[in-house]
Amino acid sequence: MPGLWQTRLIDVVTITTMPFRNNYTGLAGYSHDPDVQPVQAGVLLVNLGTPTAPTARAVRPYLAEFLADPRVIEYPRWLWWLILHGVILRVRPKRSAHAYAKIWGTRGSPLRFGSEALTTALQAEIARQRPQAPVKVALAMRYGEPSVRQAIEELQREGVRRLLVLPLYPQYSGTSTGSVLDAVADTIKQLRWPPELRLVNDYHDDPAHIEALARSIERWWAAHGRGEKLLLSFHGIPERYLHEGDPYFCQCHATARLLRERLQLDQQQLVVSFQSRVGRERWLHPYTDATVRRLAAEGVRKLDVACPGFAVDCLETLEEIAMQNRDFFIGAGGETLRYIPALNDSQEQVDALAALVLRHTQGWPEFAADYDAAGQRQRRIRAGQRATAIRAGDE
Ligand SMILES: C=CC1=C(C)c2cc3[nH]c(cc4nc(cc5[nH]c(cc1n2)c(C)c5CCC(=O)O)C(CCC(=O)O)=C4C)c(C)c3C=C
Ligand SMILES: [Fe+2]
Ligand SMILES: [Fe+2]
Predict the structure, then answer these.
(1) CA angle 135, 216, 283 (to 5 degrees)
(2) Looking at the structure, do residues 239 and 181 belong to the same domain, yes or no?
């Protein structure tokens, strides 16, 4: 019987002298063998996530995962754990479920079906613009399913070796995009052979994105007429995060300014505010609820609201703005508050995101306009045959 050290030595010698195996299967059902499949590129869209049903029972685990994320709530962990489990998760799920029930459709949560529709439309647009390219567009949710990990593993099983991660947040915040980056990093850490990776940090000032926002607002105005003012409401974050370096506030204002210039509005006609405050801490301000009340009190009767921080409609736009804040506005003397829908799967958004993807994947052969999948595959097969020949001692 060899001793332990001898066994280890034998292992090392065996492994290092083993013939090169290019058909190693690292993940169940996934072959890395280039003879089996050509290299694919993937685009992973990531949105926040949403409960599986508008019930307190389904909302609770969703909130538990979301609010336990240290990127979202920066408090000492033990203190926050006590507050979260002792107070928030006892009270909030019921309240949130009630709000979700108001926007839940036959297709389920708007955030989910809106994100899925956008994924399908973007896949089709990229296929239209790059017909030869083997590009896969997939969707993950930061909280809930499909998780970032599940989505990346599935893409790898499909042969994706180059991956562009595109969080569906136009403005970067550590609480949103930063957290997606964490989830990607946690996944990559555990993969034996991670894909080549790129990540879009933000697209808050991307000209195509601004153009898409402007056109969708103009299209909506053409169909419904124009209000006296346009309010842009962005999701808030604690103000403390801004002071500690989070660029979110500045990026929201940059988006608003670019959109205002493109729509040729003056500073009185376009107002910016921040919504969705949670807890007692001071968040980015002015707050949306206080702003709509103030505007009504100042005599504005017809107010249009758009939410350029949300790629697809969700609880925060359909319930908080289009219902809750409409009631606040009318309660304070306003006549109508009209919510202008998010870009969702509109052609404007699909065109802008397709252009963004093509820009961020420059240099990747799969995305090149003259990519020749058949030629690439032949080259890879020839390389594979040569490796096989070397293994067999033919060369
Ligand atoms: C408590 C802290 C929160 C921070 C910070 C935060 C930042 C943040 N959120 C979004 C986008 C969305 N948030 C949504 C819902 C939502 N957000 C919070 C809390 C924080 N968000 C909670 C508790 C909830 C759940 C609903 C509720 O109980 O009020 C959604 C909608 C999800 C849906 O299912 O429709 C989105 C989208 C961004 C972009 C952001 C930072 C910039
Ligand atoms: Fe949020
Ligand atoms: Fe909200």
Answers:
(1) 90
(2) no
- Residue 194 and residue 261 in one domain: no
Distance 90 CA to ligand 3 centre (A): 17
Contact 113, 55 (CB under 8 A): no
- Name which residue sits closest to atom 19 of ligand 1, judged by CA: 278
Residues spanned by the domain of 363: 40-203+346-367
Q: Which residues line ligand 1 (CB under 6 A)?
A: 48, 50, 63, 72-73, 92, 96, 109, 111, 169, 173, 175-176, 235, 237, 248, 276, 278, 309-310, 314-316
**Same domain, yes or no, for 304 and 193?**
no
ipTM: 0.98
| pLDDT means over runs of 10, the chain (395 residues) | 45 41 39 57 98 98 98 96 97 98 97 98 95 90 98 94 98 98 97 95 98 98 98 98 98 98 98 95 98 98 98 98 98 98 98 97 84 61 54 47
Supply the CATH number for residue 226's domain: 3.40.50.1400
Q: Are residues 95 and 150 in the same domain?
A: yes
Instruction: Answer yes or no: is 390 within a domain.
Output: no
